[in-house]
Write a structure and sequence with these properties.
Catalytic activity: 2-deoxy-D-ribose 5-phosphate = D-glyceraldehyde 3-phosphate + acetaldehyde
Protein name: Deoxyribose-phosphate aldolase
Strand order of the largest sheet: 1-2-3-4-5-6-7-8
Radius of gyration: 16 Å
Structural class: alpha/beta
Shape: globular
Low-confidence stretches: none
CATH architecture of the domain at 73-216: Alpha-Beta Barrel
Pathway: Carbohydrate degradation; 2-deoxy-D-ribose 1-phosphate degradation; D-glyceraldehyde 3-phosphate and acetaldehyde from 2-deoxy-alpha-D-ribose 1-phosphate: step 2/2
Largest sheet: 8 strands, parallel, barrel
Order of helices and strands: HEHEEHEHHEHEHEHEH
Distance between the termini: 26 Å
CATH class of the domain at 73-216: Alpha Beta
Function: Catalyzes a reversible aldol reaction between acetaldehyde and D-glyceraldehyde 3-phosphate to generate 2-deoxy-D-ribose 5-phosphate.
Helix content: 25-40%
Number of strands: 8
Keywords: Cytoplasm, Lyase, Schiff base
């Protein structure tokens, strides 16, 4: 995995990562259906101010003008994952053509629940083929909706399909978002070959540090300013 895929924080002076180090792991996220272009422009400005790794937005918000050093992530097959592989692949390819550096795709969670892991792997592989390296591919598995067995199997399928990260959650599923247990299980299964992104419900610096200690190498956060200690949370992710 390249430095562009998994940023390395500045060495810490304490046992816990500092707020600045946590910031460099954050995908500053806005995926609300009612989001406007003005909202996304404000997101980019805030991301630059806070020193986060990237912004994560819906594909119809591209292309974006971002300052040097700020990456652009986009979701794919979001939030249900119930799109055909061909549609996901086309959506991902268009996003990259429009400037996305990273793609966060949603699996067919129902296929994982049924144990159809080969189908899950094929779905991921189709998107990977459409957006080869250096594009970073993250695979959203909705860990809160899966058994431990399925989390492990889908994480392995993601690795076999050539993904760069496994990611806990969309933040929109009623089963919930990231958990320390799921992050640890995913990291034990695929790290260090793949990164692990904790997303959904990570709202405080303490929660972020817990996820990093469990093995998260990236964090999906909408209320980044509040998490880092600079103001109220935006909510919604």
């Amino acid at each position: 995995m390249t430095d562009a895929q998994t940023p390395e924080p500045t060495p810490a002076t304490t046992d816990e990562p500092t707020a600045a180090e946590i910031a460099r792991l954050i995908d500053h996220t806005l995926l609300k259906p009612e989001a406007t272009r003005a909202d996304v422009e404000a997101l980019v400005a805030e991301a630059a101010e806070l020193g986060v790794y990237s912004v994560c937005v819906s594909p119809n918000m591209l292309p974006l003008t971002v300052p040097e050093g700020l990456h652009v992530a986009v979701v794919c097959g979001f939030p249900s994952g119930k799109h055909t592989s061909a549609v996901k692949a086309a959506e991902a390819a268009e996003a990259v053509a429009n400037g996305a550096d990273e793609v966060d795709m949603v699996i067919d969670v129902g296929a994982a629940v049924e144990g159809r892991y080969a189908d899950v792997q094929a779905d991921i592989a189709a998107v990977r083929a459409a957006v080869p390296a250096p594009t970073v591919l993250k695979v959203i598995i909705e860990s809160a909706a899966l058994s431990d067995e399925a989390i492990v199997a889908v994480s392995r399928a993601s690795a076999e399909a050539g993904a760069d990260f496994v990611k806990t959650s969309t933040g929109f599923h009623p089963a919930g978002g990231a958990s320390e247990h799921a992050v640890r299980l995913m990291a034990e299964t695929v790290a260090p070959a793949l990164g692990v992104k904790a997303s959904g419900g990570v709202r405080t610096l303490e929660q972020a540090r817990t996820m990093v200690a469990a093995g998260a190498t990236r964090l999906g956060v909408s209320g980044s300013r509040a998490l880092l200690g600079g103001g109220p949370a935006a909510g919604g992710y």
